[in-house]
């Protein structure tokens, strides 16, 4: 399940990255394609690495099956039992479950960090309940050196758990020791020391905790003698444990940090030992009378009474971890999307502002530069008006769109200047230059075609009602395209579209062929930028104009002289 959540997070990160690249970032088409491929490849590589890591973890933990792990809703302590743990479990058992705890058997020091990592990944809600129990049986060791090396190995293993759990797990030690011979039939007693308390506490089932002095002061000579013997035995055990265990863990030597057990427990119960063990060596050095080794097959009792003293904190489930990371990814996406939207709006403001600054800088003398600047502003105004009606593109949204405040400035600039009128005639009438009629190619033709499409006749009639054939005037039909596609094909297409319009005018009005001039310019004479869809739409056009030319459009019954005095009807 953990791998499923991780795969979902990886896929979510990839989708959000693609949304940023394709919808918000101001990139060229090539850059968008390259970055999109890079994101897809990176997500695929991460998914493969996650699958491979899952396989490696499963191989390393093949001896710890998931059936041995506690369920995710387990409320008790999860105890990783290290050290001399063989006497606490059956021969083939990997765990023991009690009402308050779940004890997992750790085979060796190398397995401890792997199991901690495995638990934190597949049972993240239980990570806060994990602690490490160092089981100590001095009657199972004969060499101080080997015992010290074993403790060092477990100490390093506990430190390695910090990477998986984000903290050092609580470490507690429990020592099981055979009682003195005089106390062989005494009831089970636990001796505990907790770091938050002072002194040794004694626990007996059904009686609770009492101090060591209160426990020794018991009525009855037999019971008092037994408890005095156990108290003396306990003093010797504490002396040995402080020198062999506690001091060893508390002294920093190299990489392992200082470790002070949060809880220490000692239980006097028959333990099967070997001859010449460390406990016999210690007692011999003190009394010169080594205790006898005990043989028993009974399993050692678990330290249930120490579990409430362990530090606890609330855990985090896999679902909570998933939604945390999903929220983090969503926040990052929103921040980057808003940044990209802000950049796009700033570029829009800068572009329109540059056009306005150039327009206001020009004085109108000569007229052509000022007129071209005005045409650019008209294109900007048309684009902003279209976005206002249909909604701005996604890359400008997220509450940062600035186009609405640009519309009044553009409209005011366009309306505050008009080209000067031509000079008045002095001796004879000077014919005013023709006004060009501009038709949208997409309204007349299908994409890439040069035949007039159905329904275009009405548009031609309404637009060309003022164009009349007159002697001495030439009807010029010019076709234009945008810069999309092959330049040579665009020039041919513009020529054929101009010819199609010429043919319709000739056949409809019965106008002689000599009245027309047909030109195809392709994309060589744009009236707007080809960098935007709106600009390219303006460049796809057919323009019709009347141009004075001697001997043009000779109609029977008319002379050139009379034609020069006629008014030119224009639309």
Short description:
The chain is of the alpha/beta class and 571 residues long.
Note down, in words, how this protein is organized.
The protein is built from 15 helices and 13 strands. It is an alpha/beta fold. It folds into 4 domains: 2-57 and 320-342, no CATH class; 73-312, no CATH class; 344-420; 434-571, 60s Ribosomal Protein L30, Chain: A (2-Layer Sandwich), CATH 3.30.1330. Strands 2-3-1-4-5-9-6-7-8 form a 9-stranded mixed β-sheet. β4 (130-136), α4 and β5 form a beta-alpha-beta unit. α1 (2-23) packs parallel to α8, α4 (144-165) crosses α6 (221-250) and α9 (367-390) packs antiparallel against α10 (407-415). Mean pLDDT is 80; it is low at 425-433 and 559-571.
Strand order of the largest sheet: 2-3-1-4-5-9-6-7-8
How much strand content do the residues show?
5-15%
Put simply, the count of helices is 15
Task: Detail the poorly predicted runs.
Answer: 425-433, 559-571
- N- to C-terminal separation? 74 Å
Total domains = 4
Radius of gyration: 47 Å
Structural class: alpha/beta
Residues in helices, as a percent range = 40-55%
Give the averaged pLDDT, no decimals.
Answer: 80
Largest sheet: 9 strands, mixed
- The number of E-state strands comes to 13
Give, in order, the helices and strands: HHEEEHEHEEEEHHEHHHHEHHEHEHEH
Shape: rod-shaped
């Amino acid at each position: 399940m953990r791998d499923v959540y991780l795969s979902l997070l990886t896929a979510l990160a990839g989708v959000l990255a693609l949304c940023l690249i394709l919808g918000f970032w101001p990139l060229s088409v090539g850059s968008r394609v390259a970055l999109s491929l890079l994101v897809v490849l990176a997500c695929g590589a991460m998914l493969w690495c996650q699958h491979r890591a899952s396989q490696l973890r499963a191989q390393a933990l093949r001896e710890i099956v998931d059936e041995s792990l506690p369920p995710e809703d387990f409320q008790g302590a999860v105890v990783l039992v290290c050290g001399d743990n063989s006497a606490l479990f059956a021969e083939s058992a990997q765990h023991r479950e009690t009402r308050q705890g779940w004890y997992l058997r750790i085979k060796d020091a190398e397995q401890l960090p792997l199991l901690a990592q495995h638990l934190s990944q597949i049972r993240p809600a239980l990570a806060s309940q994990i602690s490490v129990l160092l089981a100590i049986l001095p009657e199972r060791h004969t060499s101080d050196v080997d015992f010290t090396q074993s403790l060092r190995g477990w100490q390093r293993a506990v430190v390695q758990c910090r990477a998986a759990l984000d903290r050092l797990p609580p470490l507690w030690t429990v020592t099981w020791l055979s009682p003195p011979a005089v106390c062989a039939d005494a009831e089970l007693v636990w001796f505990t020391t907790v770091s938050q308390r002072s002194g040794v506490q004694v626990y007996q089932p059904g009686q609770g905790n009492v101090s060591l002095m209160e426990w020794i002061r018991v009525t009855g000579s037999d019971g008092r003698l037994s408890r005095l013997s156990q108290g003396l035995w306990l003093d010797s055990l504490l002396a040995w444990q402080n020198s062999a265990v506690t001091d060893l863990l508390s002294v920093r030597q190299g990489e392992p940090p200082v470790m002070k057990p949060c809880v220490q427990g000692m239980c006097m119960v028959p333990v099967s030992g070997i001859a010449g063990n460390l406990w016999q060596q210690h007692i011999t050095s003190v009394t010169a009378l080594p205790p006898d080794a005990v043989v028993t097959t009974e399993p050692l009792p678990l330290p249930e009474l120490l579990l409430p003293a362990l530090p606890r904190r609330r855990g985090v489930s896999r679902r909570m971890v998933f939604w945390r990371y999903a929220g983090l990814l969503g926040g990052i996406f929103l921040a980057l999307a808003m940044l990209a939207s802000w950049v796009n709006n700033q570029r829009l403001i800068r572009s329109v502002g540059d056009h306005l600054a150039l327009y206001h800088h020009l004085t109108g003398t000569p007229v052509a530069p000022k007129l071209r600047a005005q045409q650019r502003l008209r294109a900007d105004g048309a684009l902003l008006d279209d976005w206002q009606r249909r909604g701005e593109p996604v890359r400008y949204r997220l509450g940062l769109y600035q186009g609405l405040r640009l519309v009044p400035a553009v409209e005011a600039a366009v309306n505050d200047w008009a080209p000067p009128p031509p000079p008045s005639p002095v001796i004879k009438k000077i014919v005013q230059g023709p006004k060009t009629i501009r038709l949208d190619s997409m309204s007349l033709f299908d994409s890439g075609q040069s035949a007039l499409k159905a329904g275009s006749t009405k548009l031609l009639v309404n637009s060309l009602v003022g164009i009349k054939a007159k002697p001495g005037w030439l009807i010029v039909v010019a076709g234009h395209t945008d810069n999309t596609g092959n330049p040579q094909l665009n020039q041919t297409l513009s020529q054929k579209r101009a010819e199609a319009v010429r043919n319709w005018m000739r056949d409809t009005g019965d106008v002689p062929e000599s009245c027309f001039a047909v030109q195809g310019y392709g994309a060589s004479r744009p009236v707007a930028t080809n960098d935007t869809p709106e600009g390219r739409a303006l460049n796809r056009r057919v323009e019709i104009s009347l141009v004075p030319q001697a001997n043009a459009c000779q109609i029977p019954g008319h002379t050139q002289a009379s034609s020069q005095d006629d008014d030119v009807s224009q639309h």
